[in-house]
Every structure is written in C-alpha cells, then in structure tokens.
Specification:
Blueprint: H1 2-27, E1 29-36, H2 39-50, H3 53-56, E2 59-66, H4 69-78, E3 83-86, H5 92-95, E4 100-108, E5 111-115, E6 129-132, H6 137-148, E7 157-160, H7 163-171, E8 177-181, H8 184-191, E9 196-200, E10 211-216, H9 224-243, H10 245-256, H11 260-267, E11 270-271, H12 275-283, H13 286-300, H14 316-321
Parallel strand pairs: 1-2, 6-7, 6-8
Antiparallel strand pairs: 3-10, 4-10, 4-11, 5-8, 5-9
Helix pairs in contact: 2-9, 2-10, 7-8, 10-11
Length: 323
C-alpha cells in the first residue's frame, strides 16, 4: 500500500509539473512582428531570438520579414501583424494616425545623396536624373539637400525607383544621382568607383534627426501588458546591441543568412542608444522633438496635410513602465 501510495504521489507531482508548464506556456502572449532585412531593421529581433528574450519576457513571437515600412503598416491595419519596425522614412504613418510608436530603435545616419563622378556639388544636380525610393529616409534627405542647395523639384528629374533598382540604374549610368542609404551605397561604390557623396544625415543633425522605431497597430495598442512585454524585450536587446556591436552584427548576419561585413559597415552609421538613454530622452522631451521634426518635414513635403502631436502617437508611458 505504501508503494502504491508513493506511485500516486509521484504521478500527482508529475501531473502538477506538466500542468504548470502547460499553464506557463499558455500565459505567453502571442504576437506577430515585422522586420526589414538590414542591420537596424533586424538586429533587435535577431538578438531577442538568439538570446531567448522573447521567452524570458513571456512572449511567443512570430517574426515576418518585409521590404519596407508602409507595407508593414498596411499589414497592421489589416490585422495580419501586431508590431512592426519602421525606418525614419515611414514615420509619416504614425504621425497621421496609422499606428502607435512604442519604442525608438536608433538615430539613422546611413542615408546619402550620391552622384556619378564629375558631379561635385548639390548645385550640380540641376537638370540631372535622380533615382529616389519614394517615401523613404533617402527621399527625405534628398529633399532636404535640394532645399539646402536652393533647388526646386522642378529643377531636377526625379525618378521613383525601388532600392534595388536604384543600385542597378546607378551602376549602368541610367541615373546621374540617387537618394539612398548604406549598405546599398557601399554596394554602389564597389560597382562604380569614383561615386561622389554629396549629402548625409549628419549635415542636418541635430536640427533634423532620423529616428527609426517600433510600432504597434492601433487595435493591438489597447493590450497594454503585451506592449510592455514587447518593450521589455526591445530594451534588453537594445542594451545588448549597444554593449556588443561585433557580436550583434554576427547574430544579425546569421539570422539573415548574409555576409556580416556589409552589416558591420551599416552598424557604424547610426547613433546607437541604450534603454537608459532613451528613457532619459523620453522624459526630457527630446524623443517627442525627433518625431515632431519628422512630421513637420512630411507636412512641408506634402506627404501629409497635418501631423498629429507626437504625444498622441508615441506611447511613452508604456515604454517607461516596461522593465
């Protein structure tokens, strides 16, 4: 009787453990998150996966790759995605009420206006054919550069192209210049020796800053506990990336299945902040200024008619509350 009693006790304990594990698994919050296949568009998701941060913070994450921010926001609106990564060029979407920002990723410095050999100044762009991925940070830098040079859009021929087409068109000299970013600039330079860099983000910093960020769909933003969990993952991954640049590049390259060298080059072209930095900059109002400055640019460029107040689309409290 004692022996059978011990069996029953062990069986009960095993059943309790299995039940607890099942309950723990059930408590994990399921999310769908988008990313873009470059260093700053992927590194947080890659680090969170490799370091098992999703599991640590009670998240069951389904990660989906996209080619740009606007497509991700369409997916958010359609209910097929919950969270997404957006570069600075897509910040008009939350500024116009299409999504809510939950966390800053980095301040981008990788955009360039480049030109063929022999074009040595922004003023020399007059009358030239310029390839632009419309609505991207490269497009924004291009517009700022034209304004700085005293040129109007009618002074040049702007040709809308996707990023990969810009590379091939520049290499075959079908265009004279482009508004594009690293690592694609590096690819172009390897194909076209003598490529000239006419402008970069740093020419306009800090008056104009180019933050990338993570957003949540308007519908899912009401799930505040899930947003805070995702922010906890993002914060820990941000801190890892800030402390371990080379390892972060290796992890991201492995995640994407690509050569780490272009990613290493790209990783140096941003102001990489940790979670403490971003908490402080949120509390002192700088983060609102970054988003407000981008929104003002989009209004000035005619992309949106009116921008919302950043306090209405940056969920700062949920970022600050996440641990």
């Amino acid at each position: 009787m004692k022996f059978s009693g011990r069996i029953a006790t062990v069986a009960s304990a095993a059943l309790l453990l299995a039940s607890s594990a099942g309950a723990s698994l059930a408590e994990n919050t399921k999310i769908r998150m988008g990313y873009i296949a470059d260093y700053f568009g992927t590194s947080i998701a890659a680090i969170a996966t490799e370091q098992k941060l999703w599991e640590k913070h009670g998240i069951d994450a389904e990660l989906k790759v996209f080619t740009n921010g606007p497509i991700q926001v369409q997916a958010l609106g359609a209910g097929s995605l919950d969270f997404a990564y957006l570069g600075a060029g897509a910040m008009w979407l939350p500024a116009s009420g299409k999504a809510k920002i939950i966390a800053v990723n980095a301040l981008g410095l990788s955009d360039r206006v480049i030109a063929q050999k022999g074009i040595n100044s922004l003023a020399d762009l007059k009358g030239k054919r310029i390839g632009i991925p419309e609505g991207t940070s490269g497009d924004m830098l291009y517009r700022l550069a034209l304004e700085k040079a005293g040129l109007k859009r009618s002074d040049v021929e702007t040709i809308k192209m996707d990023p990969s087409t810009v590379v091939s068109a520049f290499a075959s000299q079908q265009i004279d210049a482009a508004g594009i970013w690293y690592p694609l600039v590096g690819t172009i330079k390897s194909k076209v020796p003598g490529t000239v860099e006419l402008a970069s983000n740093e020419d306009f910093y800090p008056e104009k800053s180019f933050p990338s960020a993570f957003v949540v769909s308007n519908e899912f933003s009401g799930n505040t506990e899930a947003v805070k969990k995702v922010n906890s993952v993002i914060k820990e991954a941000l801190d890892f990336r800030a402390k371990n640049r080379e390892l972060a590049v290796e992890i991201t390259a492995k995640f994407l299945g690509v050569d780490p060298e272009p990613l290493m080059q790209e990783s140096a072209m941003a102001k990489v902040l940790n979670s403490d930095d971003l908490e402080f900059l949120t509390q002192n109002g700088n983060v609102y200024k970054w988003f407000g400055g981008l929104a003002d640019l989009y209004v000035a460029f005619g992309k949106i008619e009116k921008a919302m107040d950043p306090k209405d689309y940056y969920l700062a409290d949920l970022y600050l509350e996440a641990k």
